[in-house]
UniProtKB/TrEMBL annotation:
Protein name, entry field: Tectonin beta-propeller repeat-containing protein 1
Family: Belongs to the TECPR1 family.
Native source species: Champsocephalus gunnari
Residue ranges of the region described as Disordered: 437-463, 479-502, 1169-1192
Domain Peroxin/Ferlin positions: 64-125, 137-170, 836-897, 908-941
């Protein structure tokens, strides 16, 4: 007889196996493995883990499990290249399966799970049709598809060869997790599984089937289980008329299920061609009073356990009549019954012991009696007998009197109480007497029980508490064992005349050794451990009956919970144990008496209920939707640009939930609910993790983006769109208020704030902290929180005295009025002024010259669209071009724009040799293409805390940076007009932020960029790229004396610069960043330019010489729009050019200014040196040392 295994699970989820050739229970090697149920088949065992995953244990064998992957390389002959993989459009794929219908390149093959390893690399099969070939594995044919042969003929136009690679299953002898199916929806979580069906195949045991029941009552079938694919491939849902609680599949064509209502269903039509069957037939429970709890089937038998733990056998079951013909009551009370190989029956008793049904044969499939499974445990050579309920200690109290149990045979407790002379009761006892086999000294007469040893009638009538066989909530739903119960009397109040004499058919109990275990259910570990402690400490209560109260105590022992004692069983599976009635198995020898069972005590029941409540609370804490003391602030409907490809707009519902913590702080979560493949899903964003809420340009929708730290790193914000502008603004305001409230931010921006603008014109502000510019532990850019300020600007500049100036897209200058957002009183409403901005939208008309018609809109196939944007990559016509956002409105019609860099002719055309080349305003003999720009103005009107500064329109502006503790009567401000004139604003101060008048500074040519540093050093860039330095600028002479020309970097044209306290940075036309070296107080012009980095759009330098830029892009994210906020790390007096970039929020950022941030990290106290000073120079006075910045 081959060696097979019996599998069992204890209440702690530990899995044990008992070999037919051994005598000792062996625990699974994986000590962290916890299973709820197992189901065994020939050579394998499946299990449901506590994590709701399915696990598989394949028995080790001499033959390894190998699977051959194969693919075919296909080629076609052509006169030029001979045989090549360039096939006809109607041919099969160059790499395909044998049919040629499915593409299978070598790199497409992946291991199905971690339980597989490749044996080697791909190799060519050198045989053709099973015969060795000398053609390198090639097979030839006239065409696809045709009969291939190894012989190459004159008309062989196609050929193929097979590539082979083997993979080996490496998880034999261990528990391996079955991978989730993709793209099919997995049936998890499961509450029951059953393995069977291997007898349907001609090769017995090689093609088993696996069935499962989900906690929602659905039935699932595991497809693709094969000798070379033991894990299977996918789950298939079986249509059910009702919800299912448990099921059992036999080795043949039997499949029974237990419904939630306690009835049973039988699957018909199971066959090798149709392993899932065709229809369901309902079968009633064995009794109408008690529903079915569990079913187990074999080849031609069906066993059922009802909720009162009675065992029933279904007679007349076979392949032609899978429903059977009637029920037979079987003696013994069992919680679990399992039918294994050869229709042998295994069970878990009500006392949590393991039993085997004796005498099961083909002629008597119901067997003759139960015997214990007496396998050895741990280092103890004694077997594990079933538990004796009369042999445990404890102290009797009022709380435990209701659970005092009888010390009679288990069959005397079957069902609810009946009259003593009831014929039904007598029939049941008679059946029990004939089916229970006394073990040990079978010939010894049964000693009669004395009246003093007999329990009271009230205790006999007491209903037994139902103990689920699993921690599945399905069993809890169907667990109403005793719907009616009678009040119980205490032991002292039991009248003596109600004591019944035991029936002669009952079997007396033989005292044995004290068992340290007590029955317990598999979800309450604390109660079981506490019961063991009380059991070991308490004395025996008597000869005939006993009861105890178990106090929940400490569970920690040197061996751990449950390790020192024998297991308390909760499940058994004999589907892989090959025994029969004639088998000689050492651990199935009759070695002890059969005992009755203990029931659940009130203390244990309370402990289990407490643990269930605790698990429920923990489950709620893991679900953000089920928070306590929460209030929905708002719910609504938006559209969501989904994260995965292809990206498209999806209708979603959203909700903002706000909860109040114990300390009074409010925490909010934003939910987005969507449906994917008819499955309801959701994603949520914690408001305290939001870093920015930014309106964005997306398909002319009223859209906004929600940034978090993680989404900033992934460069994928959560993009939502509203139906109207009002809805978008309402959501932005609500979310922004929650973000600011959670971070403790209120009121207008501080004087140290960082200001920025987006390409859309929105104004964003960040409140800096000491760690933002700290030398060590610098705050990462993706953690910065940006909030929006009402208004619309192209660029904005500030300094630490609270002055903020901005320039609109139309060149209008605006000054911040000092009031942020929502006014606090009616008198403050005047500060929210009306702000307007104008912007020009351009499209380009492109033409190409040909000899017949001259310039025409008929271009080459490789040319750009005849109406496009400036780059030529996007087609833009006058008809389909809209304003930047719905907030803008057209205020003019399309006109030809003559003010274009490079000049135009009288019709507005620019000429070039080809696309894309530099265009010029006059035609030459080599110019074959031309373009002209059309422009149209649009206008936006809104309200914000900005006051207009008339009348000159500006193109650039710069405020002198200074420290927070600085005091100046007038703050220097330099600007450039839209025509390139240099201007100096007089009278600017914190009390008069808009200043008094403009002072024109003469220049030889128009300028395009200007900046003033911390020591009144003014630098500027002319429109031709020349760099100039303004000398002799001081508070007494704000306009300076003259311009000094500074050489530009070699072969580079600068376009923008920024001056800090002691450094000058500039950006050229190729987006390179430069630093000016050699700057000293005596020689402020510096000596040379040094290249730092590329990919820079704009740069800003603050009063601490900190460097921030707007990057053109983020490395690795080419699809992101240009414009990302970046911080230069490692900038210091000894390292003015810094070390690396820290990329932050983006893209779509247009401008940033850090010239108001003079917040420095607190400096550590200076420790005086020991001994005389090393330098002969006296220390500098405090007035010459920069102090720590004071945050405002």
């Amino acid at each position: 007889m081959p060696i097979t295994m019996l599998w069992a699970v204890d209440v702690y989820g530990r899995v044990y196996s008992l070999s037919t050739a051994g005598q000792r229970w062996e625990r699974a090697d994986d000590m962290l493995l916890e299973l709820k149920r197992v189901t065994a088949g020939k050579g394998r065992c499946w299990g449901i883990g506590c994590d709701h995953h399915v696990y598989l244990n394949m028995m080790p064998s001499e033959t390894s499990i190998r699977y051959r992957e194969e693919t075919y390389e296909n080629q076609r002959w052509n006169p030029v290249d001979n045989f090549t993989d360039t096939l006809l459009p109607t041919d099969r794929w160059p790499w395909s399966d044998v049919t040629g219908m499915n593409p299978q390149p070598l790199h497409s093959f992946q291991l199905p799970s971690r339980s597989w390893d490749w044996e080697g690399d791909w190799y060519v099969d050198q045989s053709c049709g099973g015969e060795p070939s000398q053609t390198g594995g090639w097979e030839y044919a006239v065409d696809f598809p045709a009969n291939f042969s190894p012989d190459k003929k004159w008309n062989s136009c196609v050929r193929r060869r097979r590539w082979i690679r083997y993979r080996r299953y490496t998880a034999q002898g261990s528990w391996a997790k079955i991978p989730l199916d993709n793209p099919r929806k997995p049936p998890l979580p499961l509450c029951d599984i059953s393995c069977g069906g291997w007898e349907l195949s001609d090769q017995s045991g090689r093609y088993p089937y696996l069935w499962g029941v989900s906690q929602q009552g659905e039935v699932w079938f595991r497809e693709g289980i094969h000798p070379r694919v033991p894990e299977g491939s996918s789950w298939e849902e079986i249509e059910m008329p009702k919800e299912v609680a448990q099921l059992s599949a036999g080795p043949g064509d039997l499949l029974w299920v237990v419904l939630w209502d306690g009835n049973l269903l039988v699957r018909t039509g199971l066959s090798l061609d149709c392993p899932t069957g065709t229809s369901w037939v309902e079968v009633e429970s064995p009794t109408k009073e008690m529903e079915a709890l569990l079913v187990s089937v074999g080849v031609s038998v069906v066993w059922v356990v009802t909720k009162d733990y009675k065992v029933w056998f279904r007679r007349g079951v076979n392949s032609h009549n899978p429903c059977g013909s009637g029920w037979i009551s079987i003696g013994g009370e069992m919680m679990v019954v399992d039918v294994g190989l050869n229709d042998q029956v295994w069970a878990v008793g009500e006392d949590r012991g393991l039993y085997f049904r004796m005498g099961v044969t083909l002629t008597e499939p119901s067997g003759s009696g139960w015997i214990p499974v007496s396998g050895q445990w741990g280092n103890n050579k004694e077997f594990i007998p079933p538990r004796k309920e009369c042999e445990f200690g404890g102290q009797l109290t009022d709380a435990s009197r209701a659970s005092v149990l009888s010390c009679t045979d288990s069959d005397s407790e079957l069902g609810p109480a009946e009259p003593p002379n009831s014929s039904k009761d007598a029939a049941v006892l008679e059946a029990a007497a004939s089916s229970v086999v006394p073990l040990g000294r079978a010939d010894t007469p049964t000693p009669p029980l004395k009246s003093d040893d007999t329990p009271s009638a009230s205790l006999q009538d007491a209903p037994k508490t139902f103990i689920p066989a699993s921690d599945s909530f399905i069993n809890s739903l169907v667990s109403d064992r005793d719907k009616t119960s009678t009040p119980q009397q205490s032991i002292t109040e039991a009248p003596q005349e109600e004591v019944e004499e035991p029936s002669p058919a009952l079997i007396a109990l033989t005292p044995g050794t004290v068992r340290p275990d007590v029955p317990w259910m598999n979800v309450d570990l604390e109660g079981a451990g506490a019961a063991r402690c009380a059991q070991a400490a308490g004395p025996s209560l008597g000869d005939g009956s006993a009861a105890a109260t178990y106090a929940l105590g400490t569970l920690e022992t040197p061996q751990g919970v449950g390790e020192a004692d024998a297991p308390v069983w909760t499940w058994i599976s004999g589907g892989g144990c090959d025994v029969d009635a004639s088998s000689q198995i050492s651990w199935l020898s009759p070695t002890g008496p059969l005992t009755s069972s203990l029931s659940l005590t009130p203390v244990q029941s309370a402990a289990w209920s407490e643990q269930q409540q605790q698990e429920h609370r923990e489950e709620i804490s893991r679900k953000p939707l089920e928070r306590s003391h929460s209030v929905w602030v708002r719910k609504g409907a938006l559209r969501w640009m989904r994260d995965w490809k292809p990206q498209r707009w999806v209708d979603v519902s959203v909700a903002l939930e706000q909860s109040t913590k114990s300390d009074g702080r409010k925490d909010s979560i934003f939910f987005v609910y969507y449906t994917q493949y008819d499955e309801k899903k959701y994603l949520h964003v914690c408001i305290n993790e939001v870093t920015a809420l930014v309106p964005v340009l997306r398909d002319c929708h009223h859209a906004f983006a929600v940034y978090t730290t993680q989404r900033t790193k992934q460069r994928g914000p959560l993009v939502l769109a509203a139906q109207t502008e009002k809805d978008m603004n309402d959501w932005l305001s609500l979310l922004s208020d929650c973000c600011c409230e959670g971070r403790g931010i209120a009121g207008p921006p501080s004087r140290q704030a960082l200001w920025s603008t987006t390409s859309k014109g929105d104004i964003m502000v960040h409140e800096p902290s000491f760690s933002l510019e700290a030398a060590a532990h610098t705050l990462a850019c993706d953690l910065m929180f940006w909030r929006q300020v009402p208004g619309h600007l192209r660029c904005v500049e500030s300094n630490s005295l609270g002055l903020v100036w901005g320039v609109g897209w139309d060149g209008t200058a605006w000054v911040y009025s000092g009031r942020y957002g929502q006014p606090t009183s009616p008198g403050d409403e005047v500060q929210m002024l009306q702000q307007t901005d104008f912007r020009s939208v351009h499209v380009y008309e492109n033409q190409r010259w040909n000899p017949m018609t001259g310039y025409t809109d008929k271009g080459l196939p490789t040319d750009r669209a005849m109406w496009s944007d400036e780059s030529g990559l996007n087609e833009c016509t006058k008809g389909n071009t809209n304003p930047p956002t719905p907030q803008w409105s057209w205020v003019s019609e399309w006109t030809v724009d003559y003010n274009v860099p490079g000049g135009t002719d009288k019709e507005g055309w620019q000429y070039a040799a080809d696309f894309p080349v530099t265009f010029h305003g006059h035609k030459t003999m080599k110019d074959f293409v031309r373009r002209r720009r059309w422009t149209r103005k649009c206008k936006i009107t809104l309200r914000g805390p900005w006051q207009q500064v008339p009348p000159i329109r500006l193109s650039d502006i710069s405020l002198m940076p200074c420290l927070a503790q600085s005091s100046m009567e007038q703050v220097p401000l330099w600007a450039l007009s839209d025509k390139g004139d240099v201007l100096c604003r007089l009278g600017v101060s914190p009390q008069n932020p808009e200043g008094s008048s403009w002072l024109h500074v003469g220049t030889d040519q128009p300028f395009k960029s200007i900046s003033i540093g911390g020591a009144n050093q003014v630098w500027a860039i002319a429109k031709d790229g020349a760099v100039f330095y303004r000398g002799s600028v001081s508070p007494q002479n704000p306009a300076g004396e003259c311009w000094y020309h500074i050489p530009s970097p070699p072969r580079q044209t600068l376009r923008q610069l920024s001056v800090g306290r002691t450094s000058v940075f500039a950006v050229d036309e190729n987006s390179n960043l430069w630093i000016r070296q050699g700057l000293t107080p005596s020689y402020p012009q510096g000596s040379a330019w040094e290249l730092i980095s590329n990919n820079v759009g704009k740069v800003t330098v603050g009063p601490l010489d900190q460097v921030w830029i707007i990057a053109d892009g983020v490395p690795g994210f080419t699809s992101e729009p240009p414009g990302a906020v970046c911080h230069r790390l490692g900038v210091g007096p000894m390292q003015p050019k810094g070390q690396a970039w820290d990329f932050g929020i983006g893209g779509g950022w247009e401008h940033i200014s850090v010239r108001g941030n003079s917040v420095e990290a607190p400096r550590a106290p200076h420790v005086p040196a020991v001994g005389p000073p090393r330098s002969p120079l006296p220390p500098l006075p405090l007035t010459q040392v920069n102090g720590s910045a004071v945050g405002v």
